[in-house]
Amino acid sequence: MRDGNEATAPGRWNRRGLLAAAAALPAAALLPGCSGERRRRSSGGRITLRFQSLAWQQDSLKANKQLVAEWNAHHPDIQVRYVQGAWATVHDQLLTSFEGGEAPDIIHDASDDLADFAYGGDLADLTALLPTRLRQDIPPHSWETATFNGRVYGVPFLQEPRVLIANRAKLRRSGVRLPTPERPWSWEEFAEAAKRLTRGSDYGVAWPLKEPVSATLNLALSTGGRVFHRGPDGKVAVRFDAVDQVVPRTVHDQVNVDRSASRTTLGMGGSDTLPGFFAGRYAMVPLGFSYRQQIVQQAPEGFDWTVLPAPRGTSAAQGVSPQTLSIAEDCPYKEEAMAFIDFLLRPPNMVRLALGDWLLPTGQEALRDPALRVAKHDWATGTALAGSLRSAPAQSVRGYPEWKDKIATPGLQEYYSGAIGLDALRKRLVRDGNLVLARYQR
Amino acid sequence: MSATEKPAGGRRAEAGRRTGRTGGARRTATRTGQYTALLAYLLFLAFPFLWLLSTAFKPPRELGSLHPTWIPKAPTLENFRLAFEQQPLLAAAGNSLLAAAVSALVAIALATPMAYVLARYRSRLSRAATGWVVVSQAFPLVLVIIPLFLILKGLHLVDSRTGLIMVYVVWSLPFALWMLTGYVRSVPPELEEAAAVDGAGRVRTLVSVTAPLLAPGIAATALFAFITAWNEFFFALVLLKTPEKQTLPVVLTHFIGTEGVADLGPLAAAALLATLPSLLLFAVIQRRITGGMLAGAVKS
Question: Quick count: other Cβ atoms within 10 Å of Cβ A8?
Fold first, then answer.
């Protein structure tokens, strides 16, 4: 039985209030639906375009919002509404947006995420819409990253080379030659330097390879590695030849043979390695160029660091998947949307966006801007590498996400940790991988 | 008492004293062990929250330290300022509050009469209905999301708060029903019979006798429904497209950039603020929840 206190509950719980609230429920539940607004408003010839940006760093957010405000101030008839997306969820969000007919008009994404949407007819073919200035300013190898079946589905505008972020003091003490963009290390020199930088419990290098596939494939481009080979019939086959194996074998040997690379960082993301880097546990960390921002924010006072180019093989090439701006196929104002993209990517604006994201622009004129050629924070090193950036090998391969998740990621993780050998890795990548790709190419 | 019994009694008394001392020591040791285990469990449960609390007040340099401390050396509110500056946290919190509050109220309004019927009118049908409610809990989210999306799209309820609220109601209804059925069963039917004998009609009995006794149970169930909806991420991500309609868990992902790199300080600050309503609600009605839960636990 309940006690007396509980029996007195009705007064405290205000029975009438509860009943009134219950009666009001159906109306309350419907109210939010009434506030649903139209995706586009048109009054007096004015149109409103929705621009979904994935900017997330403070400076980048500011730059994007300022540029939208500047556009709106000069184009009262074509207003752009800034809407915020997120890198972590953009694929799922776009997928359901396209299905639901609620996609934004102008879409910020990365070129390696476009294939499904391009082939699925969700994105507009920009080929005929692109202004000559933009077409000529961005080099052909960047356009390749957003071109599918000969059609352009995105404007590549920001890109990120993988570099070696290094503890300059340690490098100087070790006496190793400091590589430059003009004279980078070979993979052998890099391995040798990592060995010389390994002392006691401190490692020469820390490979953050939580996501090992894109890092491996993109760097393997320097040794001529391609992994994906398109035949004359247009079908793609996976191969894992000697040129594809140089980079994975270097990492494997650093971790398992000469122990110049930390084993524990193999499962980490880039940010996770920074505390150890600041504490001197690792002399070098291969990271994206934009990690400089975190280093500037988080490094202890007086920490002496520098950016070195990634090692080169037969060339200094490496794969990238640039950030892109696309237009939804459903957008009824494609020319206006392209005019906004053209404005956003004018050289001075592209520089602002690049500085905000700590990335490199794809535009040649923007790359020549003095603000991106300064020694501070090693901007000049990154800018010097821009010419060697190429389309990531897996860029337009259908079935790549499944190959990556089911075959390559576990395979490379096991290989790097020493659980399997190179032959076993090759069998998995090629035999199992081709079975996966075959399902997408029937 | 015979002479021969004295030594035996003395031995028993001695043995009893020894047993008493040993038993007392054992009880103390057991109790100490229990409290230690409880403390360890509490710390285990509290660890993520305490770490979040610590991170939210740390400047970037401390976040990059190899030897992090629990208490920030140079505590700062900068992360909170940045969190509010970068993302529309208040609007998102308003959306979350609306979705959670309305869905909890609707779920309770629907579940309470259903639970009453299931508890009071025992039949094959009610047993089957209870069984179905339990079974429905076994369906994973990913199994229902695509059909649900297509149904809502057909009803023009994608990118609609109404659609999201409907989903939350449906999602929390089985558990609410299951919980409330237990609470209704714990209210003795004799009380309702007594009210009927005193001349009260069915409605008056329900409103004046049963409903007040169910109030703690209703509060506990509503709280669970509210918190489930407040924390929910996946439905909100898939169903809501317009940024102005997005809920707090979805907006929190905006602090995460490419390759999973996070703006850790502002993210921790925003996540800390997102946990506060749940904590406050628990603090305010904890006693009633406990009372309600105990009432539902045993049959008197």
Answer: 10
Pairwise CB contact (< 8 Å): A84 & B87: yes
CB spacing of A93 vs B241 below 8 angstroms: yes
Give the tens place of pLDDT for each residue, B113-139.
Answer: 999 988 888 888 888 888 888 787 777
Q: Tokens at residue A353, please?
A: 């966006």
- Residue B121 has which token pair? 């009118």
Domain that holds residue B192: 82-297
Domain ranges of chain A: 47-160+321-391, 162-319+395-440
pLDDT for B294: 52
Same domain, B86 and B52: no
B284 and B171 within one domain: yes
Residues 266-305 of A with CB under 8 A from B: 269-271, 274-276, 278-279, 281, 288, 290-291, 294, 297-301
Q: What is the pTM of this model?
A: 0.79
Q: Do B261 and A274 lie within an 8 Å CB cutoff?
A: no
* Residue from A18, A268, A285 to probe the interface with B (highest B Cβ count within 10 Å): A18
Q: How far apart are CA A50 and CA B242, in angstroms?
A: 10
pLDDT tens for B58-98 read 998 898 888 889 999 999 999 999 999 988 999 999 999 99
Bridge-based pairing of strands A203-205 and A282-288 is parallel
Q: Do A88 and B256 touch (CB under 8 A)?
A: yes
Q: Do B212 and A9 touch (CB under 8 A)?
A: yes
Burial class (CB in 10 A: 0-12, 13-18, 19+), A135: middle
Topology of the domain comprising A162-319+395-440: D-Maltodextrin-Binding Protein; domain 2 (3.40.190)
CATH numeric code, A47-160+321-391:
3.40.190.10
Query: Which residues in chain A have Cβ-Cβ distances shorter than 8 Å to B187?
Result: 2
User: Same structural domain for residues B188 and B243?
Assistant: yes
Q: Please, what are the averages of pLDDT over each run of 10 residues along chain A (442 residues)?
A: 36 40 40 38 76 91 95 96 88 83 92 90 97 96 93 97 97 95 96 96 96 95 94 91 96 97 94 94 96 93 96 95 96 97 97 96 97 96 95 85 93 97 97 94 80
Do B133 and B227 have their domain in common? yes
- Whether B257 is in a domain gets the answer yes
Identity of the residue in A6, A9, A270 whose CB atom sits nearest the CB atom of B261: A270
**Phi, psi (5° rounding) for residue A351?**
-65, -45
ipTM of this complex prediction, to 2 decimal places: 0.72
Q: Are A271 and B263 in contact (CB < 8 Å)?
A: no
What is the total count of domains within chain B? 2
What's the angle, vertex CA A435, arms to CA A434 and CA A441, rounded to 5? 80
Q: Left (φ > 0), alpha (ψ -120 to 50) or beta: where does B73 sit?
A: alpha
